[in-house]
Amino acid sequence: MKSFARKLLCISKEAEGGQASVMQMRHTVAITYKSVGTQTLVDRGTQTAPILGGRMFSQQKSLSKFPVPPLQQTLYKYLLQLQPLVGPEEYEQTKQIVDDFGKPEGMGEKLQMGLLQKFKRKDNWFADWWSDTAYLGYREPVVVNVSPGIIFPRQDFNSLEGQIEFAAKLIAGLLDYNYQIATQTLAVDMLGGQPLCMDQYHKILAACRIPGVKKDKFVVFPPYQVNSPRHIVVAHNNHFFALEVLDEDKKPFSLSTIYHQLKNIMDQSQVAAVPLGLLTTEHRNTWGKVYKTMKKDATNYHSFDKINRSLFMVCLDKSTHAEGHSFYDNIAREALYGGGSRSNSGNRWFDKTLQFLIRPDGGVGMCYEHSSAEGPPIITLVDHTLDFIANVLDSIDKPADETADIERLEFNINSKTVDIIDEAKSRLESLGDELQISIAPFTEFGKNYVKKQMMSPDAFIQMAFQLTYYKLHGEPTATYESGSLRKFQYGRTETIRSLSVDSQVFVKAMLNAASQPSEKVHLLRKAVAAHKAYTKDAMAGDGIDRHLLGLKLMAIEIGENVPEIFMDPSFSKSTHFRMSTSQVPAKHDLTMCFGPVAPDGYGLCYNPHPDHINFAITAYNTSPETDSDKFSRALRESLLEMKEALETAPPQSRL
């Protein structure tokens, strides 16, 4: 049998977009496929991607380049979104600064010309800047601050045996998905009939963030490379093992083989090791220095390389329970930061792009390092894997009929490194004590009810956030919602600004006892329409935040002083997002969570289902103003009040 890599190279030009049929028989993957056209690799620095024969990348060349919006358009929209945030006097002062910046032959036009020149040279003028400023150049710890967690539905097992069985099935499902990426047979994601960029999909498996002293880097080892990785890393009791899961032909080992090797790993790691993984929770400069020193040792270098190149990580955790927290609140903590040093934080490697946690009590989740991808590609992978697990028919505990290599990853650490691990442990405990998490499913209605009211569920939920925040704090705040830019080559996200003049008028009407239901409904519809329009503009490349950041970074790049528009207090208010929000829909009952981006703010993530909505709400106990439990209760109240207004308003005002 020809090797898997050779199959990808020895392909015919007769195929029309790579189509494959995958037949799973007793968990052994049998594959028939049409070939996908000759492939090449194009090196674009951080934008490396395979081109363009497979179905997965068949629409990539048709995607537009991310545009540079007109300068005056952005400045007008910037002033408009400031109106509900600042007072009249401050607004007039800011308007003068903005007008001066936008004058013909002024600094704004000079910087705009620089962006337009960069647009001509690059596939995406903003991609490298975003990678550096948002991720690789960010020096605070990735836990809570950067990496989201995902909470799975509680699984139907409550034993070590069930833990290992589920882990084996999860690995098999992920390998099935890896095959689709390797053969580029994933269907192209579409939105409104338009294809979306698929670049993020080939950066989530066999990928890792590498710490640096001043800036990190991101590496990926794609499965279509001849020497692509064939192993995963399994963590148990703070030990790390490289487990071979693909044979030399890149065919997955059987489910029973993986199952028995997981049992072997657990048998070999009954006594907890030094929690080296805590180093990955540290400040990036600190970890970068330690990593640089440690990798000079040949044993450490080899172990680091095994982790970096692995397809993904599976963390076989112990069951722990923090008193006063629900089961899902606890899993959220495990997913975000491992739950603390007394829980499973040492059983992690937070630089790894994908790591899945499995506890003996049916608790399952994952953490993903955010550099490579947004939520949708990750959720697609998880939905696929859970579907796969649900359909496994093979007997899992039959004798293994293959030999899959296991390698314990050894590390040589000195007393100074042990001291740094202890310091990391102390800081992580403080972070865990500071973080407040509320996993709050709303069960009274879901997105189907909102759709029946002829409104966007996303915009409806965003208006509930605005109402809730104002109730609790007596003022509005700048609000970030993540909007996809994947209709453009290598697009990531743009900010959807949920606070608007219309949202504030709606909020004040809802809180005014004299307002009639018909007025509330009218203003709700107007606010929802405004949010939907802003969303459409942002996802079409006409948002303001990436453009403004680009102008600022262009000034720095050409050696100019940072323009006054970015030093203005109004700009600080507009970018102090006390509500950072994201809709992450999934077919399964998943909930994503992430930390607040402001110390006095909230992290708000939601997954709308037809008849309920999953919310994850985070805040910091160190802020006397914020409380995730209070926000959760007030949010439920807001949603019900909005529903009541809709149902008590006269019929003619409901549509």
Question: How would you explain this protein's 3D organization?
Answer:
The protein has 19 helices and 22 strands. The strands form 6 sheets. Strands 15-11-10-12-13-14-5-20 form an 8-stranded mixed sheet, sandwiched between helices. Strands 16-22-21-19-17-18 form a 6-stranded mixed sheet. A two-stranded antiparallel ribbon has the order 1-2. The protein is α+β, with helices and mostly antiparallel strands. It folds into 3 domains: 4-58, no CATH class; 154-435, Chloramphenicol Acetyltransferase; 443-653, 2-Layer Sandwich (Chloramphenicol Acetyltransferase), CATH 3.30.559. Helix 4 packs across helix 17. The model is unreliable at 1-53 (pLDDT under 50).
Question: Notable features of this structure?
Answer:
Chloramphenicol Acetyltransferase, 16% strand, 655 residues, globular, 3 domains, alpha+beta, single chain
Low-confidence stretches: 1-53
Please count the beta strands (DSSP E, at least 2 residues each).
Answer: 22
The number of domains: 3
Characterize the main sheet.
8 strands, mixed
CATH superfamily of the largest domain: Choline/Carnitine o-acyltransferase, domain 2
- Strand order in space, largest sheet: 15-11-10-12-13-14-5-20
The name of the CATH architecture of the largest domain is 2-Layer Sandwich
Helix content: 40-55%
Distance between the termini: 63 Å
> Helix segment count?
19
**Tell me, what is the CATH class of the largest domain?**
Alpha Beta
Which percent range describes the beta-strand content? 15-25%
